[in-house]
Amino acid sequence: MLTLTENAQTIITGIVDSAQVPQTGGIRIAQDAQGEGLNVTVAELPEVQDQVVEAAGAKVFLDPSAAVALDDKVLDASASPDGRVDFAINPTG
């Protein structure tokens, strides 16, 4: 299952808070239409088939394809002073 670094937890919580979605909200990671990449959006709730990963209050909703692709991975994040957020997916261990 996907795990989140402390940086990712903090940044995801900040993104969701800034988007002013309910406490049920989180970021959603889904396979793009071409199946070549992943899209990240803010969501109020997970979709019915989403896998939910929660750590320290940060919620990540993974569509079924993303859940398979990110199984046994670590999600990290960094934010630059101009507000840009970069996500990185790393192997566990």
From TrEMBL:
Its name, as the record gives it, is Iron-sulfur cluster biosynthesis family protein
Q: Which domain of life is it from?
A: Bacteria
Q: Which InterPro entries match?
A: HesB-like_dom_sf
Which species does this protein come from?
Answer: Agrococcus citreus
